[in-house]
Amino acid sequence: MIKGSIVAIVTPMFPDGAVDWDSLSALVEWHISEGTDAIVAVGTTGESATLDVDEHIEVIRRVVKLSKKRIPVIAGTGANSTSEAIELTQAGKDAGADAALLVTPYYNKPPQEGLYRHYKAIAEAVDIPVILYNVPGRTGCDMLPATVERLAQLKNIVGLKEAKGDFDRVKDLLALDLPRDFALYSGDDATACESILMGFHGDISVTANVAPRKMHEMCVAAAAGDRKKAERLDTELQPLHKHLFVEPNPIPVKWALNEMNKIPAGLRLPLVTMDPSHQDTVRNALRAAGAI
Fold first, then answer.
1. Is residue 278 a part of any domain in this protein?
2. Span 190-244, pLDDT tens digits
3. Given 119, 133, 164, 254, which residue is catalytic?
4. 3 near 205, Cβ under 8 Å?
5. Do 113 and 142 touch, CB atoms closer than 8 A?
6. Residue ranges making up the domain that contains 77
7. pLDDT tens by residue, 152-190
8. CA distances to 77, 135, 198, 201, 217 from 162, in Å
9. Where residue 196 sits, what CATH number does that domain have?
10. Helix axes of 251-259 and 279-288: crossing angle, nearest 10 degrees
11. Rounded distance, CA 54 to CA 65, Å?
12. Alpha-carbon Rg for the chain in angstroms
């Protein structure tokens, strides 16, 4: 089981939108040296929506190669077409990823039975550990705990990233009859600390992009039940948890990494550079967390 602080890594880009492979390589090395426990390549924070298929697969392939098996790599392979998700997941496996993270189909708004059949088809088509990803605020689709419980019985569905940010949902998930090795990950940095203290296994994180060491230490403390240490670290991180979402992700986190001289300022349309009115707010959050 993959546990701890799992960074949903950005895809560095030049101002013209071209992928900056050298910066990607440097980010992977930095995360490994800072203690990040695993990397999600081309999740939604990695701008999966605007990378073409060849770029998508190449980013996964390079992150796998760069990691050199030092930490696990999870390939973001979700799509709102089941056949496309199967193709991307197969490509992620072929690239050497340790697992695949698949967001619920967006825009389609499938019913719960549709979600079940979607993930079942992928799990049966590709022999790779599959992590479900529920983020209703972005997709317009909410995978309910009962559906998670059904899917968890399938052989290679091994976990869930839950990004609703709702403690009632956390409690409902923890109360399910899940296999012992089924992993529950927070996908909401602001509530991740408490979710892990309650029994989740880690956090698939945006904040870890800019504060990897502190996120790792917070997750370790929370998993060990050290509430005092976990909450102290989380308090320092809370300004980032909040202000890295002053505009839609990944706009603020890419601005922050540029401010830290880690990546160029590139995004792809329809995303644009963060409005200057937010810059001091994000800069101050970076300072509060010790990132700059």
1. no
2. 999 999 999 999 999 999 999 999 999 999 999 999 999 999 999 999 999 999 9
3. 133
4. no
5. no
6. 4-225
7. 999 999 999 999 999 999 999 999 999 999 999 999 999
8. 16, 7, 14, 12, 21
9. 3.20.20.70
10. 70
11. 16
12. 18
What's CA 31's distance to the chain center, in Å?
Answer: 14
Is residue 261 one of the residues assigned to a domain? no
User: Phi and psi dihedrals of 198, rounded to 5?
Assistant: -80, -20
- Amino acid at position 284, single letter: N
Q: Which of 3, 116, 119, 161 is catalytic?
A: 161
Residue 256 is assigned to a structural domain of this protein: no
When divided into structural domains, the chain yields a total of 1
- How many other CB atoms are found less than 10 A from the CB of residue 232? 13
Distance from the Cα of residue 175 to its chain's centroid: 23
- Reduced DSSP (H G I as helix, E B as strand, rest coil) percent helix, strand, coil of the chain, to 5: 50, 15, 40
* Four-residue CA torsion sign, 194, 196, 199, 203: positive
- Dig out the tokens for 224 from the structure: 């060990």
Number of C-beta neighbours around residue 9 at 10 A? 28
CA 130 vs CA 10, 17, 123: distances in Å? 21, 30, 7
Let me know if residue 258 belongs to a domain: no
Task: State yes or no: 204 annotated in a binding site.
Answer: yes
Q: What is the C-alpha separation between 106 and 91, in angstroms, rounded?
A: 21
Q: Which of 280, 208, 212, 287 is closest to 249 using CA atoms?
A: 208
Q: Which two tokens stand for residue 134?
A: 């529920």
Strand duo 202-205 + 4-8: pairing: parallel
Cβ neighbour number for residue 127 with a 10 Å cutoff: 12
Question: Are residues 123 and 130 in contact, defined by beta-carbon separation less than 8 angstroms?
Answer: yes
133 is catalytic: yes
